[in-house]
Amino acid sequence: MSASDPSDADLIDRARDGQSWAFRQLVERYEDQVAATVIGMLGPGPEADDVGQETFIRFYESLDQYRGDAELGTYLTRIAINQSLKALKRRKRWYDRFWSRDAEPDTALSREPPVPGDEEIDARDRAELVHRALEHLSDDHRAVVVLRLLDGYSTRETAEMLDIPEGTVMSRLYRATSTLESLLRPYLSPDDLPSR
Asked: Is the pTM of this model over 0.85?
C-alpha cells in the first residue's frame, strides 16, 4: 500500500456509506491473506473458494460492528478460520453420511513414500503432502498450525483469535507438529518438516 492509498479505516467508512468501490478495494487488499488461511484449513479447491467468498460476505454484513479493536487483517483471518471450521464440520457430516467408516480414502500419505534416489519431490508435491497431512489433524489442532506456522501469528494473537488460553495454543501446537513430523518424515527432508 503506497502513502497515497486510502487507509483501511477510510475505506471501511466509505463502504459503510454505500461506496462499493471502497469495499472492492478492501477485498483486493486482503484476498490473498484470506485465501492463504482458508487453503491452509481446507486445502485448495472449490470449497476453499466458497469459504473465501463467504468470509468477505460475512465481513460486509458486519461492517457496522467492526470497531477497529483488531487490525483488519486479523479480523478477517478470524472470520476465515470460523468459516473454515464450519466447512470442516459440514465435510465431516457429509463423509459420515456417504462413506463407509471402513473405507480408506486414497491420499498421498496412504501411498508408499518415495524411495531414496528417486527424483526429488518438487515444491508443488511438497505443498500437497503438507495439506494432506493437515487433513489428519483435528480441526482444533489444524487451526493452531495454520495460524501459528502458516499465517505467522504469535501465540497471543492465535489465542485471541481462537478464544483459548495461550497455554492451550502451545500444547495443541506441540501435539500437532509431532503428528505432522511423524506423517511427513518418510516423504520430506528434516529442513522441510514443520517446526514449533
From this structure: no
The answer to whether 148 and 170 have CB atoms below 8 angstroms apart is: no
**Which residue, chain included where needed, has cell 481446507?**
42
What DSSP string describes 74-141? HHHHHHHHHHHHHHHHHHHHHHHHHS-TT-----GGGSPPPPTTSPPP-HHHHHHHHHHHHTTS-HHH
CB of 9 within 8 A of CB of 68? Answer: yes
pLDDT in tens, 116-141: 444 455 667 777 788 888 888 999 99
| Contacts of 80 by beta carbon, 8 Å cutoff, 6+ apart | 34, 37, 38, 41, 51, 52, 55
Kindly list the distances between the CA atom of residue 52 and the CA atoms of 22, 128, 131, in Å, as whole numbers in the listed order.
18, 20, 17
Q: What does the alpha-carbon distance between residue 89 and residue 56 come to, in Å, rounded to a whole number?
A: 20
